[in-house]
Specification:
3-stranded antiparallel beta sheet, alpha+beta, 6 helices
């Protein structure tokens, strides 16, 4: 991930509803959630939710799949890992063993 993409991801997550959406979809895991389910779970009207989902998609933090007339959304774990890797790429002044506990905590095998 480069600086421009990292800034896009941070910008997307810097809004309360979008952060809630991302965290909800991380918890949902591989099953993801339908757009309407996300809106209902967070108490957000669907047109507002649609805008927020689009911003998270553009930032590389979500992916989606069409299911007939509905769309299922998933946290993009590769995008999340890329953002975390960007944050930690210069970690610990060239002593990666110092970062090992943090990396182990972040590795969930998703």
């Amino acid at each position: 991930m480069d600086k421009k993409n990292a800034l896009s991801a941070f910008g997307a997550l810097a809004q309360p509803t979008r952060l809630d959406v991302f965290r909800l979809l991380v918890r949902a895991g591989a099953e993801g959630m339908l757009a309407g389910e996300i809106a209902a779970a967070l108490g957000v009207v669907q047109n507002t939710m649609s805008t927020n989902l689009s911003i998270l998609l553009a930032a590389g933090l979500l992916r989606n799949a069409r299911e007939g007339r509905t769309v299922r959304y998933f946290a993009d774990f590769d995008g999340m890992r890329g953002l975390l890797a960007y944050l930690m790429e210069d970690c610990c002044g060239g002593r990666p063993e110092l970062c090992a506990p943090v990396i182990e905590t972040l590795t969930c095998g998703c």
